[in-house]
Amino acid sequence: MNMYPVPARATESSSAEVTRQLASAAAALQYEDLSAEAVEIVKQCVLDTIGVAIAGHANEATRSVYQLCADEGAAPAASFLCLGVKGSVRQAALVNGTAAHALDFDDCCLTMPGHVSAVVLPAVLALGERYAASGKDLITAFAAGFEAGCSLGAAISPGHYDAGFHATGTNGAVAAAAGAARLLGLPADQTADALSIAATTAAGLKGLFGTPCKPFHAGKAAENGVQAALLAQKGFVTRRDAIECRQGYAMTHSPDFNPERVADRPQPGGMHLFDNLFKYHAACYGTHGAIECAIELRGRLNGNTADIERLVLEVAQENDKTCNIAAPANASEARFSLCHTIAMVLCGHDTGMADDYGETSLGDAEVVRIRQHVDVRFFPARNIAHSRLTVALRDGSTLSVEMDAGKPNEDLAYQRQRLQKKFLRLTTPIIGEEAARALVAAIDTLESSPAVGELAAKPAPVPAPSGSIAGL
Known about the structure:
By secondary structure, the protein is of the alpha+beta class. It is 48% helix and 7% strand. A four-stranded mixed beta sheet has the order 4-3-5-6. Strands 1-2 form a two-stranded antiparallel ribbon. The radius of gyration is 22 Å and the shape is globular.
């Protein structure tokens, strides 16, 4: 007897076969299918993600996760970026994924919506090192995972994210599984097994934003994706429609499931990769439009904040649930505070420096004063990074700026230059300029690399946290 009645709207299996659609697309993708522009974007994702991961290895979340892995021990198979030691493939994906998202400085795509690179790259890089994959293999696997995660996100948005799920941890696990399965060369059926396994392990709650659990979501998604693909490779067979089946992933995670949206592709480009957004501020992407407005207004005010009487910031309604912490108590919360980040900018703090979100700005009396005079309101924004900021001055005059930071940069050469500067700024203090520039060069020619293991192990090691992986 079935004690749990099936919802009337559910069927045994959707004719849309979403899981198989995603699996078939991932398994079929070849390097030759990618345009030169798509390859360039993938390499930019790799550069940016490795850079923020190197910088994020000193973060408390990363250190705790690394220490757990060190205590567990494992045969050395894949590198912990920048630590000079190795663990298992799953451990490397977990630690490097956590590090990549630790500073909230990693790229994002509003279609998933979340941080696709931070979950897919650690998964495919760890497997690529273990199985001696080439640069082209890595690029192809990354693209496969990226597209799968965004296609899934399109099918269950906006209800999934609005319900409180952190899509980086949830949809990201499926994305990582798709990329990992492609790296391993799994056929479509086994890839569908991998996606189903990942779907049943996916997790991540937005209620934990501003805590170490947020980057941990990314690490777990990367690890779950690796685990799912390896299990499928070893013959672990499950139902291959876990996303769309009765009581499956989509129906339990979103009221807005529309399987037809899986096939949607942005134009021009025809791939979700072209909608990827890179960060130049180490904060939630929902704050970036407001930050850009504040940068413009600071210039108009010649850096003078004394005459600011009040500010009105208009943003998307969705931002109220993600980045509207009025009085942040620490650096993690500051990255999710609209009023704090614009106050930082107006007072001359560098939002591109992760350290500035800590006591440097939290203890600045003028930042606190400005922050307390920000009135956050909601307007029909085009996306979470579309903002309008109005400043009222003591003489009765006002200044207003509107910015949309949710548009991808079409000038890929200029974007590459900005990302290289960001990479060098983040990594040079940690691994030295010579090693940092060597990494930039290696990633720039990634498609010519015979083995990506060298890339994973390339950064000069910094002192690892106490403890080491057994067997090293």
